[in-house]
Amino acid sequence: MGAAIEVWVRGDGQYPAALDDAPNPPARLFARGTRAVADRAAIAVVGARRATEAGLSAAWRIGRVLAQAGACVVSGLALGIDAAAHAGALDVDDGRTCAILGGGIEAGAPASNGQLKSRIAARGLLLSEWEPHRPPAPWMFPHRNRLIAAMCRAVVVVEAGPRSGALHTAQFAIDLGRELAVVPGPIDHEWCLGSNRLLQREGARAIVAVEDVLDLIGPRIEVAPPRAEFTDDEAKVWDALAAGAMTVDTIAIRSHLPTTRCLAAITTLEMRGAVTCLLTGEVRRT
Length: 286
Prior knowledge:
Rossmann fold; Arc Repressor Mutant, subunit A; three-stranded antiparallel β-sheet; 17% strand; 2 domains; alpha/beta
């Protein structure tokens, strides 16, 4: 795995101060990776292990956008949403992410996430309250979830069924006074039932566009370039969006562009901060 495992004792300079807020904070932590990651503004992204493709895409994009903004993306290195969020953060050159494990650092992750775990150790941070070789057990994960919530300013839930462990993390966030946000899902999808109910019953913030998560770490103003700087295709897409948010197919029709050129123009405009691609599949001016 690489670097040696360090032991951080509560009260010393290494131990993250935010974890003092956790219920029964651990007296010590085992850590591998870059200590500076723990000092970044941290946002948790959690959700279902058996996630949909749409959910995985949303988690990856959210992780990437948070990392681009300089935040640390925190999750539990589980299959599904957790892994996608970590991977999105690592897609950014200087992206940082922290995995808080449900077992020891040498054992606490699914085997299929082994490569991702190594990448996090190299560029981010692995944390655990358990002895390094202690295998995970189901009862350990609620303990892990309280640390994820305490470590972060906010918790974003992407797809969670009615019994999902992500709901435990959400409840810890509520109890600790952290902000709670949810990516809304289809109302007829069981894997979104628990997360949708957080919107209904707990007043969680709805994340309807990937960039909405930036509000969780503080507003970042993006200024769209003047229209004169657009290419011809970009200008056609920009003009089409004057009518409001719409799907790519509709933009292609209104702009009289082939779909491939339309998508290329949208991608460039999104990278320049001129348009926002919503999780609904629509595009709008920023």
